[in-house]
Specification:
The chain has helices at about 10, 15-25, 40-50, 65-75, 100-105, 130-135, 170-175, 205-210, 215-230, 240-255, 265-275, 315-325; strands spanning about 25-30, 55-60, 80-85, 95-100, 115-120, 140-145, 165, 200, 200-205, 235, 280-285. It folds into 2 domains: about 10-175, Rossmann fold; about 200-325, 3-Layer(aba) Sandwich (Rossmann fold). The relative contact order is 0.14. It has a 7-stranded parallel β-sheet. A two-stranded antiparallel ribbon has the order 8-9. A two-stranded parallel ribbon has the order 10-11. The longest helix has 14 residues, at about 40-50. Strand 5, helix 6 (about 130-135) and strand 6 (about 140-145) form a beta-alpha-beta unit. The protein is an alpha/beta fold. The termini are far apart.
Length: about 350
């Protein structure tokens, strides 16, 4: 197998499982929790396929994920090109493509140009643009990768993928040292969310943000942060951009070095935030664009120990996505979400 990155046993065991699934179904879904090395595994499989002379396409929807995948392929010595705005194209057996860019250039690609298509963050695959891409390369084998193989509306993806290859449980990855153990706390009484409608399986964000922006709720989150993890840096997931900005202002007023970050934050500012020396404080993030999803450089994550979560969640898929972003193996302990079914109160 090419490359300088050594796979862990839990990653190596999934390669033959994916291969066997593809012998039964041309489209399969690989599920592993966030932080367990899906990108490295994806790139390792790509390297094996490339050695056989086949062409591979890796579909991504964010610039951060394109960069992360490219860096991993470089470490594995896998020749590749990037199909995305502001990236010079190059002929190579592996192409990492921005879903938006390749969608606009689809007419220059033939259905048989790629033997294998990877769909990263594959819970988005039901979107029309993603389906159009998958259907265009009808002759290719397709492997979707995600931590949450479920649509936001709670429906499955079995109409797109014929078989699910599930990784180990979060508990097992914690026991292996891949993920850090978490201690979960919640308020004695949950906030009153009566009257807030649900949309796509979760609370409607605007109304939820208005309710959770109440000064008593925000202040309570800060007080619990002071009491439970006063010296630990952390991430704060919020309900909207404006809610995140309000929470950042409140943490700053309380003496913390807090910064608001969202999907529109300039890359240089985001890099500076995540590369800053560890300091006491919290980094508020809006929920709909946790930067970056599945990424290897989520702001402050390499030193996040406390994770206040002033948001109630109705969707299991959303909850799994958010609460799994903190406990990577390099982190300390402590998780302080606002909603958890089994926790300390």
């Amino acid at each position: 197998m090419p490359g300088a990155i050594r796979l862990r046993p839990d990653q190596e065991e999934d390669i033959p499982r994916v291969r066997d699934a593809l012998r039964r179904n041309r489209r399969v879904m690989l599920q592993r929790p966030t932080g367990t090395g899906k990108t490295v595994l994806l790139c390792a499989i790509t390297g094996v396929v490339t050695e056989s002379g086949a062409q591979t396409l890796i579909l991504q929807h964010r610039e951060e994920l394109i960069g992360q995948t490219s860096r991993t392929l470089v470490k594995m010595a896998v020749e590749h090109g990037v199909i995305a705005a502001k990236h010079p194209g190059r002929a190579a057996p592996v192409q990492i493509a921005s879903i938006d860019t390749i969608a606009r250039r689809l007419d220059i690609y033939q259905p048989g140009d790629f033997k294998l298509v990877f769909v990263d963050e594959a819970h988005h695959a039901a979107a029309p643009s993603w389906q159009r891409m998958i259907d265009h390369f009808a002759g290719a084998y397709v492997v979707g990768c995600t931590a949450t193989p479920e649509r936001l509306d709670g429906k499955g993806l079995d109409h797109l993928f014929g078989e699910l290859v599930a990784g180990r449980s979060v508990k097992e990855y914690v026991e292996l040292g891949v993920l850090a153990p978490a201690v979960t706390f919640a308020p004695p009484e949950p906030p009153d969310l009566s009257g807030i409608r649900r949309r796509l399986g979760d609370f409607e964000q605007t109304a939820l943000a208005d309710r959770m922006s109440d000064s008593a709720i925000v202040g309570d989150a800060i007080e619990h942060y002071k009491r439970l993890s006063p010296q630990l840096p952390g991430l704060v997931y919020c309900c909207s951009v404006r809610h995140s900005q309000l929470v950042a202002e409140a943490f700053t007023a309380a003496g913390y070095a807090a910064r608001h970050v969202d999907g529109e934050t300039p890359a240089a500012e985001r890099e500076a935030t995540q590369d800053a020396p560890p300091a006491q404080g919290a980094l508020p993030l809006p929920p709909h664009q946790p930067p970056p999803p599945g990424g290897d450089r989520a702001p402050a994550a390499p030193r996040a120990s406390g994770k206040p979560h002033p948001r109630r969640l109705s969707s299991c898929r959303t909850r799994a996505s958010f609460l799994s972003r903190g406990p990577r193996g390099s982190l300390g302990r402590g998780d302080i979400p606002g909603a958890a079914p089994s926790c300390r109160r």
